[in-house]
Amino acid sequence: NNLQNYKLQLQQVEAALTTAPENDELIKLKNDLEEVIQLTCDLIKAQLLDDKAVDGEIDDKDLAELTKPEPTVSSKRDWKPGDMCLALLVQDGQYYQARIESIEGEEVSVVFSHNKSAEVTTLEFIKEVPRADGVPKPKKQPLSKVREYQKKKKMKKLQRYKQLEEERESEKNKWLAFSSKTTKKGVIKKSIFASPDNVNGRVGIGTCGVSGKGMTEFVPAEKWR
Fold first, then answer.
1. In the CATH scheme, what is the code of domain 66-141?
2. Is the pLDDT of residue 108 over 80?
3. Any idea where the Tudor domain is (predicted)?
């Protein structure tokens, strides 16, 4: 429900921006909604994996230990953008060849060669590409490390999600002020908090001229486990 509400709110904010395209508060609200939609999708995906693991339904591909031999890690190597490496793909716990795009502290942005997808990982989860003359087989990456990395990544997204929810609560008052101000000036003929055209409509952030369609309210965030 939250995800649907966010998407509907985004549509209505975009509609309001056609009336006031340079309104900074609306622009910020639009950007926040886009980010919270992406975070919500990511958290839902992470929660589904957690639930499958608890129920014992997760398959080998989801949580299997790494099966491919990994090269010896050179912890002192000075990685730089443009270097080729093997990087961990969290979705299946495997290492794939990738190109380093940027490095910020311990975080490394890479683009995988096989599917051109971008991923943010850490220095701990990138390896040197094995030499053609053969390398001794090192130990597999412990599954617990992969799971811990996933957990930390999820927590970061959850913290950002909560931060955005708090900001959206304050934006609710700005919406009211914006609606009142623009209605008085005649910029918006119909208040974005006006009653809907039919008895089943809901009063929310406004219909933005969409007849009979109530605006969703700012809903509190669901408690993510």
1. 2.30.30.140
2. yes
3. 78-136
